[in-house]
Amino acid sequence: MKHVLVLVLWWSASVALAQTDSTVFNRVINPDTNRIKLNMDATYDRPFLSVGKLPVSVGGYLEANTQYMATDGITEGLSFQMRRMTLFLASTINRRIKFLSELEFEDGTKEINIEFAAMDIELHPLLNLRGGIVMNPIGSFNQNHDGPKWEFIDRPLSSVTIIPSTWSNVGFGLYGKLYKRGWVWAYEAYLTNGFDEQIIVNEQGRTWLPATKANRDRFEESFNGVPLVTLKTALKRRRVGEIGLSWMGGVYNKFQDDGLILDQRRRVDVWAVDFNTTLPTGTFLNGEWVWARVNVPATFTQQFGRRQQGGWLDIVHPFVRRPILGWNNAVINAALRLERVDYNVGTFNETGGAIGDDLWVIVPGISFRPSPVTVIRANYRYHWTTDLLGNPPARTAGFQFGFSTYF
Questions:
Q1: Minimal CA–CA distance to 25: which of 54, 59, 51, 46?
Q2: Is residue 141 within 8 Å of residue 159, measured between CB atoms?
Q3: pLDDT tens for residues 219-273?
Q4: How many CA atoms lie within 13 A of 349 on its CB side?
Q5: List of domains in the chain
Q6: Which of 334, 356, 335 lies closest to 344 in space, CA to CA?
Q7: Among 211, 111, 110, residue whose Cα is nearest residue 161
Q8: Which pTM does this prediction carry?
Q9: Quick one: which of 238, 404, 318, 240 has its CA closest to 11?
Q10: 405 CB burial (10 A radius; 0-12, 13-18, 19+)
């Protein structure tokens, strides 16, 4: 644990962007600039480009990096990575009717995903309808995941391996907000297609919720006809911080086929709590903790976890704020991320000893922001990974350097 802190920040979603002087291209910002922003606002709180009088605005972001990692002294050398390029398309169709889509290209074009494509109908601040491909609001990172907002190159492990990263499904639901004297309360509630049996039948050989993302059929039909329910509520006080509570649950197995009962209904449930605040010193704290419970069949071995949990805490402090090399709003941040993930919470039936399959991670880093929408970042990662039997942990360490920017 001797490898400790140094540098980084996420700070851009709520920073107003300067408009260009061009009469052809104009930056379009969420007009609700005076309101208190929540993680759920990240869907629309992005820079878009309006081209002349076209009814569609466009935007996106890019992430790329290089890294050198070694595990117990064994390394594959230096690699360059094109993590992702994401495109946004947005349009105000009519008064209080909006459309937004998010298309992501990962690892070049190894994966191409529609992460969001939904229409919003605004009826009242407390009652709005959303339908299409929606991002399930579990935790904070799943919605507020854009690379330029973060000082760390890798995404939080619990937010991508317990909660599937950028987990989205076809469905519909409601959302709303209430503002009151420096407070804002908000909620979201959705019914969507959900998980399938790949969460326990997969190449990982463990309970692995992200395996369901390989099922492209979830965008056209439910695996078992039972909707996945996702609920979230969040409360924020100006100059204090935000706390969010969320739950996602449903049946993941095919329990019947043409009326023939195949199995009992087996559930998967995920809970998350998230928070963020800025201390009087300017230090930004951002964290999330998640729990998952899966009804694994008794015929499966104990390597398939019935319970999982994990979380992360980001500590980011801007220690330089001044013009640098002609950039008037430049910021240099020091940052530290602490992570813990346990993929199999419990003890062995035979011995009573603790089941392993867990890891600790520490990531110090430093970042340079020439503007709020662009970040250049350097991270050092150190992992302690314990196998299922609890043997001495494998140690992974390495350096990462890269950038991310909206465009």
A1: 51
A2: yes
A3: 999 999 999 999 999 999 998 999 999 999 999 999 998 889 999 999 999 999 9
A4: 5
A5: 25-406 (2.40.160.10)
A6: 356
A7: 211
A8: 0.88
A9: 318
A10: middle
